[in-house]
Structures are given as C-alpha cells and as structure tokens.
Design brief:
single chain, alpha+beta, 12 strands
Length: 270
C-alpha cells in the first residue's frame, strides 16, 4: 500500500505569502494614516488652544511689579513670520512658522481718545521698556515663542505660503472691553528692532515699536484693523492637501471668537 504525503505546493505557499504580505501592507498603511490623522488633529487643536489662551491671558488689566507700579499690561501682540530670534541677530530656523507673543505695557492714566489704538499711543503703550538697571531696552515681560506641533504649518487661506502678519489683543484702557486687531502680509520685526535700538543712536525713550512700525497708523498700508482672519493649518506644508480652517472672527472679544470651521465651509483653497 502506497503512502500519500500531504503538504503545500510552491504555488500555494507563494499565494499565502502574497496574501499575507498584502494584508500586512494594508494594516501598516492604515495604522500610519491613523497616526498621521491623529497628529494633524492634535496640531489643529493645539493651535486653537494657543490662540484661545492668548485671550484668556488678557482677561484683565494687571499692574506690573519690579519698580513699574505706574505701568499696566494692556494686551498681547502676536507676530507671525519674524525672521530673527530674540537676540535680534540669529535667524530663526523655519522662521515663517515661528510665532512670538509679547506683552503690551503702557502708563496708568486717563485718555481722552475714543479710538482704542490711539489710546495705546496716548498711554505710551509698547512691547518694550527701558530697564535702567540693565541700561537697555528689553521686552515688557516674558517673550513666548510657539511652533505648531508635528511639523504642521500655519498658512494663508488663498495660497500655500506660511502666514505673515500680526494680531493685537487689547483691552480698552477706558472701558475695559477687549478688542482684536489684525494685519496680514506684514509683520513687526520686534526682536530685530530691540537689537537695533540697543546698538544704534536711538535713545531710551525715542522709539516706540508699536507706534513707529506704522501699523497703528491708518494711512499705513497694511495697518491694524478689525477684520476676520482665516488661518489654514497644513499637516506637512505640501500643496494640494486638505487644510483645516481656523477663523478669528471679526470683532472678536474673547476666546469664543476662535472657531474651527467645518470642511464644507472652509476658506482654505485646495
């Protein structure tokens, strides 16, 4: 009686390996896509929290310590696209994606101006002050820098260039109400200006960054204005990808004005 040996043929083994390989590739790609999507969602939420946190930090007028009792914090200046680090000399790596936040300080007192931006000028408000102990101009408080998570980029709505501009979040010195002003296409090179002031002929009180930048002047183009701003979060900086639209509503007075826009209403071109 002849014994029949059972086993797999080469074709069957090849088919098994091929199917297993395809399943493995499918699972791996699915996991990678899931991780990518989670990281993208994380970067979008993180940027929203950054903007909302800036409003929460300007919730009330605070007096300053350290010998500046006659000064008060009136808001925040957020700059997009500065070219230089805080030393004013070293260029920022991927500078178009680094965001800086500065405190706005000014005198404590009354102002007769009905315009919020003019009130800042009347009270000598600025993002710097002269430190007599150090003998130079320094930032008014802690300068914070922020970069979107997971290599995401903050871009303009109508193109794929990284957003350049500035946001002013301020409290009206007279009424205490919060206002938001924005400028797109131009930013204030605060870090470089501080360096320039301290190494040039500017005197300790001869230069006001907010006023002399021209952006507070309505005849300057562009200038700060109350407007809607659409930020588009790009997951990797590439063109043609789906971007998420975070909108800073016109007339925003608190953190609720920072909105994540549904995809079918997005202003972000693709």
């Amino acid at each position: 009686m002849r014994t029949i040996k059972k086993g797999f043929t080469l074709i069957e083994v090849a088919l098994f390996l091929a199917v297993t390989g395809l399943l493995f590739i499918g699972v791996t790609v699915g996991v990678q896509n899931s991780i990518f999507q989670q990281r993208f969602n994380d970067s979008v939420q993180n940027f929203m929290e950054f903007l909302r946190g800036s409003y929460n930090n300007v919730s009330n007028v605070q007096s300053l310590s350290g010998g500046r009792s006659e000064k008060a914090i009136y808001g925040k200046l957020i700059t997009f696209g500065q070219q230089y680090k805080q030393d004013g000399e070293t260029e920022v790596e991927n500078s178009r994606n680094t965001i800086f936040t500065y405190s706005i300080i000014g005198d404590i007192g009354e102002t007769s101006s009905s315009g919020v931006l003019q009130s800042l000028i009347d009270l000598n408000a600025d993002v710097i002050y002269y430190d007599s102990n150090e003998g130079k101009v320094v930032p008014a408080g802690i300068v914070q820098s922020y970069t979107p998570k997971w290599s995401a980029s903050v871009q303009f709505a109508d193109n794929y260039e990284n957003f350049v501009g500035a946001i002013l979040i301020i409290r009206n010195p007279s009424t205490g109400m919060m206002y938001t002003y924005a400028v797109e296409g131009e930013t204030i090179e605060v870090n470089q200006l501080i360096h320039t002031i301290n190494t040039s002929i500017y005197g300790e009180s001869d230069y006001n960054i907010l006023e002399n930048s021209g952006l507070l002047n309505e005849t300057h183009e562009p200038h700060f204005e109350r407007k809607e701003v659409n930020f588009c979060i790009n997951p990797n900086g590439d063109e043609g990808v789906l971007r998420r639209n975070i909108r800073l509503a016109s007339g925003t007075r608190n953190a609720s004005g920072v909105e994540l826009i549904p995809e079918d209403e997005s202003k972000c071109v693709r």
